[in-house]
Amino acid sequence: MPTNAGTSLSSYKHIVAIGTTVKSESLESAAYEIPRKRKMRSDSAAVSGNSVSTPKKLKSHLPSSVPNPGMSEKEVVEDSNEILRYPVNLAVSDCLGTKSKWSPRDEEQMRAVKEALHVSKAPSTILCREDEQIRIFEFVKGCIDQQKAGSLYICGCPGTGKSLSMEKVVQQVGDWSTQAGLPPVDTLSVNCTSLSKTTDIFSKILGEIKPGKNANTNSSPLQHLQNLFSQKQESSSSRMMLIIADEMDYLITKDRGVLYDLFMLTTLPFSRCILIGVANAIDLADRFLPKLKSLNCKPMVITFRAYSKDQILRILQERLRVLSYVAFQPKALELCARKVAAASGDMRKALCVCRSALEILEIETRGSTGPESQGPTPDDSVVRMDHMAAALSKTFKSPVVETIQSLPQHQQIIICAAAKAFRGSKKDATVGELNKLYLEICKSWMISPAGITEFTNMCTVLNDQVCCFRGY
Ligand SMILES: Nc1ncnc2c1ncn2[C@@H]1O[C@H](COP(=O)(O)OP(=O)(O)OP(=O)(O)O)[C@@H](O)[C@H]1O
Ligand SMILES: [Mg+2]
């Protein structure tokens, strides 16, 4: 894979993921699987329908100050150290008389740890994204204060906390406007992956501003919005509107028309849109900003950088801090943070790896209770380095990815072209269309392309390979 794949094709997150090589001792040639994403975070219905339920509040996971009667002196000391780490919660757990000793056999404890590490569990504080949140909040606040439309473009690799931070900012804006005695800000959060066609974004916005306005009319929702924002409005309908277009990469059409029209709405004389576009495509800014600038619309850009090892570790520790027991060896967490940071800095991935390591321990524990077990697994056994290493190789290893990585460079480019061709609902493409995309990619990577005969041959070879992929 060309080394600049990450930059040139950053909007095609799956392909970038495939091309990312993990620089690690134990995972030399590993690459990571296409991450499974929690697509509908901003969709409350989807979130509430998640398989992970809200933690049961009755049973506290906080440490007890009363040591277990059966504990050795050493365990008591260790337990006391734990207690010192959570001094505030001590009294609560003490009153409830809950147990604080970790046991992988305890289903309730296991469930609580998994839940703390689940991607759908929004943390109470979003660590390592404080600056970004302040900048977004200040931008929105500035627009509301001045009653002025504006646009912001947030970009960053998958799992870097963009959607999470946006949710928090929306909350903060709501709290701030209430406290300031301002009228509530109309907020529309759209996950662009949920739109059946890109122009539906305009009907969504119109529906939010003027419900029912779209029906029985000759002009399109975009034209409606353009008219609306070109004329002075009655004061009652001139509230500012915060529009969050998450996964905005999905709005990229060939001519990027929808994207331009969307951002241009913020430049109309009576516009009251505060538009925030969130996307993975770091280079999208370079590709579409110059044109927007020439149209007198240059959104502010905030980039979310991949999490570093220390940040991933801090976030993991923070998420686990709510539990009274220690389920992970510190070194195991560190290993996870190091490997994930080296691969992608994707927090979603780090959480998945930790959960997977926990499951490995769970299986090991269960296995040890069987009649053929080689002696019992200690009840207090925690997730160790070996569990984590196994989870890492399980997560980062994919036969399909390995096969793709072993392909010659031009065949990899064809796969990138195919990914581009089949984005959205498109089911088929001609060799000519594929060749055109292939030539575009070669041009952007400054690689001389293969001729059409060679290209067709490579497609045939790949076609055979795809049959092999399906076998996995
Ligand atoms: N700072 C953080 N603290 C705690 N958890 C985090 C943090 N950042 C990310 N996460 C976890 O990782 C998950 C993925 O984050 P998020 O959905 O915000 O990523 P994203 O940048 O929007 O990714 P994508 O580009 O794929 O949409 C979150 O649901 C959350 O569980
Ligand atoms: Mg997101």
From TrEMBL:
UniProt cross-references to SUPFAM superfamilies, sorted A to Z: P-loop containing nucleoside triphosphate hydrolases, Winged helix' DNA-binding domain
InterPro entries: AAA_22 (IPR049945), Cdc6/18 (IPR016314), Cdc6_C (IPR015163), Cdc6_ORC1-like_ATPase_lid (IPR054425), ORC1/CDC6 (IPR050311), P-loop_NTPase (IPR027417), WH-like_DNA-bd_sf (IPR036388), WH_DNA-bd_sf (IPR036390)
ORC1/DEAH AAA+ ATPase domain boundaries: 147-268
Location of the Cdc6 C-terminal domain: 402-464
Lineage: Eukaryota, Viridiplantae, Streptophyta, Embryophyta, Tracheophyta
Location(s), subcellular: Nucleus
Occurrences of domain Cdc6/ORC1-like ATPase lid (ranges): 307-364
Record carries keyword Cell division: yes
Record-given protein name: Cell division control protein
Organism superkingdom: Eukaryota
